[in-house]
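Quick entry, no commentary yet.
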Amino acid sequence: MTDPIALQADPAHEDNGTPVPSAPTVVIVSGLSGSGKSVALKTFEDLDYYCVDNLPVDLLPSFVRSLMREDELPPKIAVGIDVRSRQSDLTRLAQWRAALAQLGLEGRLIFFDASDEVLLRRYSDTRRRHPLGHGGLSLQEAIRQERTIVEALRAEADVIIDTSQLNVHQLRRRIIAEFAFNKGAQLSLLFESFAYKRGVPADADFVFDARVLPNPHWNPDLRPYAGRDPKVRAFLDAQPEVAEYVGQVSGFLDTWLPRLRGETRSYVTIAFGCTGGKHRSVYLAETLARHAREQGWEEVATFHRELD
């Protein structure tokens, strides 16, 4: 696997010690149709990126210039570019990235790939039409032709992610883990929720069981909502045992997470599980993530396995 890239460079420092703000980054999301580009863009959007899909390559610099004319340029931008652009434009991506650099922006390209076998299965399962599936081309021929067209993009990529063995949830988690955080930070925190009936996350560093807490699922008015909904939050906030649980877990994390700063790791995953992964675990992951930010942790993200 290619080393993950930092989507926003660490602030440099002038000789007088004054931080120089990092240049906003434009992440170009590309790859084969059916390889996960749409999931990736949606995930970047959830990470507060300003996202645009299917932008012609030759419009990339002018699109960014138009954003720069606004009062404040978004610090994180993600643009989807794929085979729907003209083939001649795709071969000129290096020129457009150079144009971004002249605007003071860093352009990064992430390319999503998958095996032909997996792409064929995904298209068969969803019954979607391949963008090149016209003029009598079979699906297999369309995939083969697309590989040839986007080869120039693949050759330019800073990161290539093969999604052949990843489902939607694993792909979202991969993007969050690799792209939500500033790689220059000493330690980043990922708060995750999950359902025990689907197994404990294999890479969780700390796991807390929320099944001992009152379950909103048994309240017909709350059952349709998830743990991020104000109604569910209000219900759980009012439960004394929930407040006690949050207090004890936050105390534990406040004591021991700072001691991990010296370890050779980039991020720590704190997972909360409940029966369905919809109410209590989601509430706790969001609540403890908010607490971590209040405690001064700068790199904090959440991932809800059964919802995302």
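second:
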Amino acid sequence: MKYLQKLVVISLLSLLLMPIHEGNASTKMSAIELAEKVANRSSNKSRVGFMHFTMRNNAGSERKRSALVVHSQVPERTKIGIYFTEPAGLRDTSFLSHDNSASQDQNWLYLPATDRVRKLPSSSRGDYFMGTDLSYGDIKDNFKFALEDWDFSLGESTVENGKTYYQLKGVPKNELIKAEIGYASFRAKIDSQTWFPIKIEYTDSDNAPLKEVNVVALDIIDETWTATHFTIDNSQLQHQTEIIISDMRAVTQVPTYLLTADELAYGAPLMLLEDKS
């Protein structure tokens, strides 16, 4: 009798556990699904604020820079303008990025010393931006991984303080893309509640460790998660860039004529700071 009772209990437990296991298997997220959640993370249509850069080398010296940043997102196009305001020697140096879903991306740089706007080739995506440890491509990607650039895979997920973190890995789809972006791979720790990468490790084109990005502070700005404090540590150059975002807020809209190559030489569009919406 005791044997039969044990058998019944074991059978009932098996029936109860089977749907749970099957449910977990059926809802397991694939690498591309995770990458899409990161890429499709909501963003403000228009926002403006300041970026403050602190660059440190292994000797302990520091350089500081500040810039007005303007972000505009319309269907099939994202525009980012960065206008340096400090120090005086960099004032009015400006960078503009047009990320087009239907055509090739375009980037421009304005240097007051030459008084001309220069269109950057696509091969410059991996170049360092104005002495920082960010590349031009990093700025354009804005903590997202372009689906057209990477082949994705999953690493082992972890649970910390009751929160799940996924591990997303990527390698460039081909050698041309690898040469352009300057990375052979990345590994990112993704917050399952925000779909934001809070840590990204990159290797260089030879697959040697290159740099690590760590998000120190993540805040909601107009219902959108935004990294307001993060660091980039370059192990090869023994150099660090710390970035703090201040006074970032949504604006009603950015006039279409502002974020264009023709307007880049006119300096920071300070009129947007007057928009109190």
